[in-house]
């Protein structure tokens, strides 16, 4: 393997390591959902299923713009998952956030790493803001969330 495939494999291994950390944290905030959505959005490609892309970007939006916790986002995902929709293919950003899963893992476990997960999510949302209107419309029409 060369190029992006190696990077993706390395990133997946780092994400797996982060998952061990986030899944061991208290469920009240459920940082794991923020990590999943951010990682998925940051690694989105033409091969990403539209539903996966929408759910990931929706999670970024809800956290960055609405202040939702990972647990609240998971509940929105659960409600949306019951809908049989034609999920839109969101336009891929030309770049991704400078923060990566490696940066999150470099932060000291505990409050510092937890804050870094939140910063990573917000930073990645900044490159997906072109999808804001589509995400807001989806939330309004499907779940009556303004």
Would you give an account of this structure?
This protein is an all-alpha fold and 146 residues long. It has one domain. 66% of the residues lie in helices and 0% in strands. It has seven helices and no strands. Helix 2 (31-42) packs across helix 3 and helix 2 crosses helix 4.
How are the secondary structure elements laid out?
Layout: H1 4-23, H2 31-42, H3 50-66, H4 70-81, H5 101-106, H6 111-127, H7 132-143
Helix pairs in contact: 1-2, 2-3, 2-4, 2-6, 3-4, 3-6
Can you summarize this structure?
This protein has 146 residues and is mainly α. It is built from seven helices and no strands.
- Using only C-alpha atoms, the radius of gyration works out to 15 Å
Q: Based on Cα principal axes, name the global outline.
A: globular
Number of separate helices: 7
**Which whole number gives the mean pLDDT?**
93
Spell out the key features of this protein.
7 helices; 146 residues; mainly alpha
